[in-house]
Write a structure and sequence with these properties.
Blueprint lengths: L2 H29 L2 H24 L6 H32 L3 H25 L9 H26 L1 H9 L13 H26 L1 H21 L12 E7 L6 H16 L4 E11 L2 E13 L11 H12 L6 E5 L13 E7 L5 H17 L3 E6 L5 E8 L1 H6 L4 H13 L1 E8 L2 E7 L16 E3 L5 E3 L4 E8 L5 E2 L2 E10 L5 H12 L6 E5 L1 H32 L3 H7 L2 H15 L5 H30 L4 H26 L1 H4 L6 H20 L1 H16 L1 H8 L14
Antiparallel strand pairs: 1-3, 1-4, 2-3, 5-14, 5-15, 6-14, 7-12, 8-9, 10-11, 13-14
Helix pairs in contact: 1-2, 1-3, 1-19, 2-3, 2-5, 2-6, 3-4, 3-5, 3-19, 4-5, 4-6, 4-15, 4-18, 5-15, 7-19, 7-22, 8-17, 8-22, 15-16, 15-18, 16-18, 16-22, 17-18, 17-21, 18-19, 18-21, 18-22, 19-21, 19-22, 22-23
């Protein structure tokens, strides 16, 4: 295990523990009884152990992505158990039933909601498991860990949690389920007052449902526009515990000149705080090989030993500023790619192609035009050629007419040059019991100077030796050190980074815009991480739409109705509002982690809606008027919605404020989910009753008609105040 992976896993484990502790405190605040609180808490380790076992059986490992999935699932794991325990506690308090009878009655009321929540939270992540590419590999890690965790949570909520409620809880007198002194008494009074005020506001909003549906439509349009305008990205560039330094001397520089520059760079890095070790390789770099190149791998001190101004990004910025004083070579500090084998650095990978066969000179001119435009752009920085610059070359011009007159063929000329400057294999011969090869090559002193080429001789058709000086001449030229092709076209590799305040998606869009100013015959392609980012960006919208469709069809099959799933799914944009707002406030792009957060918010938003609509549907089926049934369901579910939502929100706080190894990834994942869950709770508790009433009036008239038929009242109907 590499140091960055080990540090990241330890950090996520710490985040996992912090999330469990915060969830426990939220449950204790609302349930106010250690027995009630322990029951949902016991679900967490059991579900996580079961998840690890299933991941092992599936051939997956415990890595940063699966651990992120488990951290996200912490708040979800206790949801089902909280719903069960809260309903048992409410029935014991309101009706004074013993724990066993209260548990049986509670399970009869909320088993459908638990099953519905589980189906939604599993269905929403299923499409992620089947997406291709590098983004699909990451999606599968999240999908597997969260789906398995949720499945275990539901199984335990329907089996272990009721058993624990029936055996661990103590009977309470009717109306004496909560403490009446101290902080908890104050909290209960405030919660009761808030619930009463919420019920009145809900009734007022339902009476003006048309106006609030218009406001909802405006919110949908606004969040759609904001989501479309968000800068794109692939994955965050985390501090991996090391950086790289590339040294490129002029193309005609000798190895000793490059070594002098390397020593200067080593001295500068040795004085930089936060750096632990420097390893230099001369004659090699990611951009090419030669005496003018060198590459350094700079190991940083452990994350715990570095301050906030000694992160990898900060050290790269400081080093680049210091390297500008070095005149013997071009030196740049680089961050490693966030995913191995997807490029050599963290920047974008652009391939400028000569698709019209315009030639090398035209390709170089197009490259210079593009780089000059990129240097003027405020969106881009450090745009350069990902390779070695052109170098002086010896050009041997052959006069073919003279050579033909002398009886020399071009094939013989080429063979002679290959033998003298390279080598030729002749045969093998036995020598003291061993077979040895005979290799022919010009001696070192006869291939040291350009003029030596004209002293070589080639045999003509008459068997005579003809010197090269008879039909050739030497000249100097500037030519390519490397010949690069991409997808069958001559190409130049360009790399660069987004400027401060811009995302990689902004940089990609800007490079595509600048490429349009090039003459006809030139095109471009993306490679490495940039290609995967484009692919993931194109897939994100389809993934979200597919997740919503899966949830809708799952609910339609569960409720055997189109109207109820529609009322549930209308809540999704209310969660997206918070995700987009939180990401924009923090300056985060729309990347793979943000997409995972949006998918999570889709499921959690639907969960809150199900908790209200499931009760409203049951009350409507018992003959209650539509508005009264909806308001009573909202009243009954307000407290558990707050409890489960705050448990998830606070469980995500360690992700939002993460630092150290994998901090940026945790922040990217936690910020969107944190903001989305806030709006999915605050806005949904008011709009979900409106959605249910409006949809039932428009599409659910059969449900209303059945409800209006006279029937005897049931003893199990709630008598909660309206």
């Amino acid at each position: 295990m590499t140091p960055v992976i080990e540090a990241s896993v330890k950090k996520v484990l710490l985040t996992l523990g912090e999330a469990v502790l915060l969830v426990f405190l939220v449950m204790f605040l609302f349930l106010q009884n250690i027995r009630y609180t322990i029951i949902p808490t016991l679900v967490v380790p059991i579900a996580l152990l079961g998840t690890c076992a299933v991941l092992l059986a599936m051939g997956l490992s415990i890595n940063v992505l699966t651990m992120f999935g488990m951290v996200l699932a912490i708040g979800i794991l206790v949801d089902d158990a909280i719903v069960v325990v809260e309903n048992v506690e409410r029935i014991m308090d309101e009706e004074g039933l013993p724990p066993k009878e209260a548990t049986i009655k509670a399970m009869g009321q909320i088993s459908g909601a638990v099953i519905g929540i589980t189906l939604v939270l599993t269905a929403v992540f299923v499409p992620m498991a089947f997406f291709p590419g590098s983004a699909g590999l990451m999606y599968r890690q999240f999908s597997a860990s969260i789906v398995v965790s949720v499945a275990f949570s539901a199984f335990l909520a329907l089996s272990l949690t009721p058993a624990l409620c029936a055996t661990m809880l103590k009977p309470v007198e009717k109306g004496h389920g909560h403490p009446r002194r101290g902080f908890f008494a104050w909290f209960n009074r405030r919660l009761d007052a808030t619930t009463s005020r919420y019920t009145k506001i809900t009734r007022w909003m339902i009476a003006r449902s048309v106006r609030f549906m218009a406001v909802y439509l405006a919110l949908v349009v606004g969040v759609g526009f904001a989501l479309w305008k968000m800068p794109g990205g692939f994955v965050p560039i985390d501090d991996q515990g090391f950086i790289m330094v590339d040294v490129l001397a002029p193309s005609e520089a000798s190895a000793s000149r490059t070594l002098d520059a390397v020593k200067t760079v080593e001295g500068q890095l040795a004085k930089t705080p936060g750096i632990d070790d420097v390893t230099f390789i001369t004659g090699y770099s990611f951009f090419g090989q030669g005496p003018m190149t060198a590459q350094a791998f700079v190991t940083l001190k452990d994350w715990s030993k570095r301050g906030p101004d000694e992160t990898a990004d900060a050290l790269i910025e400081k080093s680049d500023a210091a390297f500008k004083a070095i005149r013997d070579a071009q030196v740049s500090a680089l961050a490693p790619p966030p995913i191995d084998n997807l490029g050599t650095t963290s920047g974008f990978s652009f391939r400028l192609q000569d698709r019209g066969q315009r030639g090398y000179e035209a390709l170089m001119a197009a490259k210079d035009t593009l780089i000059a435009a990129a240097e003027k752009s405020p969106v881009l920085s450090n745009v350069s050629v990902e390779g070695l610059p052109p170098a002086p070359q010896i050009r041997l011009d052959i006069n073919r007419e003279k050579a033909a007159a002398l009886g020399v063929t071009f094939r013989d000329i080429n063979a002679t040059l290959s033998t003298h400057l390279g080598s030729s294999y002749i045969n093998d011969f036995p020598n003291r019991g061993r077979m040895q090869r005979v290799i022919v090559q010009a001696s070192e002193e006869t291939r040291a100077k350009p003029e030596d080429l004209l002293t070589y001789s080639v045999r003509n058709s008459a068997g005579e030796m003809v010197p090269f000086s008879s039909f050739a001449r030497i000249s100097w030229a500037l030519g390519p050190t490397q010949v690069v092709g991409y997808n069958g076209y001559p190409a130049i590799r360009l790399t660069g980074e987004p400027a401060q305040g811009y995302s990689s998606g902004d940089a990609i869009a800007e490079m595509e815009r600048l490429a349009r100013i090039l003459p006809s015959g030139f095109g471009y392609e993306w490679a490495g991480q940039s290609y995967q980012e484009k692919l993931a960006g194109n897939q994100a919208g389809f993934l979200l739409a597919l997740s919503i469709l899966f949830v809708f069809l799952c609910l339609a099959a569960l409720y055997e109705s189109w109207s109820i799933p529609l009322a549930v799914m209308l809540v999704v944009p209310l969660g997206v509002v918070g995700s987009v707002a939180a990401a924009n406030i923090r300056g985060l792009p729309n990347d793979v982690f943000f997409t995972v957060g949006l998918v999570t918010i889709i499921g959690l938003s639907a969960k809150n809606a199900i908790l209200i609509i499931e009760f409203a549907k049951d009350l409507l089926a018992r003959g209650r008027p539509l508005e009264d049934a909806t308001i009573e369901a909202a009243y009954l579910r307000f407290r558990p919605i707050l409890m489960t939502s705050f448990a998830f929100i606070l469980g995500g706080v360690p992700l939002v404020i993460a630092s150290g190894a994998s901090a940026k990834s945790q922040q990217a994942l936690g910020t969107g989910v944190f903001g989305g869950m806030i709006t999915a709770t605050v806005l949904a508790v008011f709009w979900v009753p409106i959605f249910f009433v409006v949809v039932m009036r428009l599409l659910g008239r059969k449900h209303i008609a059945r409800a209006e038929q006279p029937r005897p009242p049931s003893e199990s109907e709630s008598t909660a105040p309206l």
